[in-house]
Design a protein that fits this description.
The complex is a heterodimer of chains A (about 190) and B (about 230).
Chain A lengths: L10 H9 L3 H23 L2 H17 L10 H20 L10 H12 L8 H14 L2 H12 L4 H8 L3 H18 L8
Chain B lengths: L2 H10 L5 H13 L1 H18 L8 H11 L6 H10 L8 H24 L11 E6 L7 E9 L6 E5 L12 E3 L3 E8 L2 E9 L3 E3 L6 E4 L5 E7 L2
Antiparallel strand pairs in B: 1-2, 2-5, 3-6, 4-5, 6-7, 6-9, 8-9
Helix pairs in contact in B: 1-3, 2-3
Classes of the chains: A mainly alpha (about 190), B alpha+beta (about 230).
Chain lengths: ~190, ~230
């Protein structure tokens, strides 16, 4: 068997078994995708407990509506779509004034940078990670979602397109703007200054 | 987005044509500000890929799997399943023999114990053993046991007031040791009687505490029955 060949049934087989009342098969799907769903939710909402609650809701929604899953798409794509929608609903409920739309990054960025300027200093890796996590939380939700999926979860634009239902050109622009804001946010902390 | 910024972003996404890539790298080489901006974005991307990942907590997995698990059977379903499930009984010869010995021992023990409760034992002080059996509504009867030791007899019966002096009416039963017994229900009162051995020998009860003459020169045994 090739070294990269996954051992055990694939997602499609587990879905089929789950539809035949094999609850242990859905448990295997949970084990397989729980980490990515939780991390995606965590990067979106910034709180571990909330992230696990949202991830649970996503899995339960998937379990209850498993019969509606179309086998012509990937289970992971379908599951991540459910999870991102749960996260956006949570963000919308938490901050009802924040519209889920592309914003002009330059308008929001200048004010933000002026308030957050700090002296140059060399930071430890842990500090950089903390600063980056906080900066990601400051991104507008659409940029945050695109940046996290692209550079934290390592997805490609095609997969992101399938999950979010948004064309890849729009997704690229969101990723670009997310990178730009983060790089300006962290510019004063970078050792390359 | 300004053109240099867009070039940086497209470079990171590997979207530049070979010619565009050459132009970009030359620009980066000659423009320190562009180079700095490009490296800042590269640093952000690199650090994002290194962010620590959360592992699902044990609570998360256990709660979620418990939620999707089908409900277990209630107690009645478990009892019904236990009762109706076909089972295979495995046995061996040694176990079967041990069980058979146990059963035989119990039966033998019961047979040994139980007859002692009904074997008639002569009591010297009183010639009869009585039990009341209040079956009638007005005059309860008393069960009277008559006992005679006659090892050599072939038959023994009793004749008296209670059976019209007819020895054929009340035969005694022989038990081990030549003991002859009979249990007779009698109303309370005074009765005279005699044993008849082998149908011809009339003898008084040697264990009777009272006697009366029969008017023919012989002695009848007397029995007083009280409740």
């Amino acid at each position: 068997m090739p070294p990269d060949q996954p051992v055990g049934p694939d997602d499609a087989q587990l879905v089929t078994r789950s539809l035949n009342r094999d609850h242990e098969a859905f448990g295997q799907l949970i084990d397989r995708h729980a980490s990515r769903i939780i991390n995606l939710a965590y990067r979106m909402v910034g709180n571990r407990a909330e992230a696990e609650d949202l991830a649970q809701e996503a899995f339960l929604s998937a379990f209850k509506s498993l019969s509606t899953f179309r086998a012509d798409s990937k289970f992971s794509t379908w599951l991540y779509r459910i999870a991102t929608n749960k996260c956006k609903d949570w963000l919308r409920a938490k901050r009802p004034g924040m519209e889920q739309q592309d914003v002009d990054i330059d308008e929001t960025l200048d004010i933000h940078v002026a308030d957050e300027q700090t002296p140059e200093r060399l930071l430890s890796q842990q500090q950089v990670a903390q600063e980056l996590e906080q900066a990601i939380q400051r991104l507008p939700p659409l940029y945050r979602e695109a940046f996290v999926m692209k550079h934290v979860e390592g997805m490609g634009y095609e997969e992101m397109e399938a999950i979010l239902g948004v064309n890849s050109d729009t997704l690229k622009m969101r990723v670009y703007k997310g990178r730009l804001q983060l790089s300006r946010d962290l510019a004063t902390l970078s050792p390359t200054q | 987005m300004h053109e240099p910024e867009l070039l940086i972003q497209r470079f990171l996404d590997h979207d530049l044509t070979p010619a565009e890539r050459v132009v970009f790298l030359q620009a980066v080489d000659t423009d320190p500000a562009l180079r700095r901006r490009w490296l800042n974005v590269e640093m952000v991307v690199a650090e994002a890929a290194r962010l620590p990942r959360l592992a699902p907590s044990p609570r998360f997995l256990s709660e979620l799997k418990a939620t999707i698990a089908p409900p277990g059977p209630n107690w009645w379903e478990r009892v019904w399943a236990a009762v109706t499930t076909p089972r295979t009984l495995e046995w061996n010869l040694a176990g079967a023999m041990a069980a058979a010995c146990l059963v035989l021992s119990v039966v033998a023990g019961l047979l040994t114990v139980m007859p002692e409760r009904v074997v008639e034992v002569p009591v010297a002080m009183a010639p009869v053993q009585t039990m009341s059996a209040g079956t009638t509504q007005e005059t309860p009867r008393v069960f009277v046991r008559l006992v005679l030791l006659q090892p050599g007899a072939r038959s023994v019966s009793v004749a008296g007031d209670f059976n019209g002096w007819n020895p054929a009416d009340t035969p005694l039963e022989r038990s081990d040791g030549g003991m002859w017994t009979a249990t007779i229900p009698l109303k309370p009162g005074r009765y005279e009687y005699m044993f008849v051995v082998d149908g011809k020998q009339w003898i008084a009860d040697p264990l009777a505490t009272d006697a009366a003459t029969d008017g023919f020169g012989a002695q009848n045994a007397v029995l007083d029955v009280d409740i």
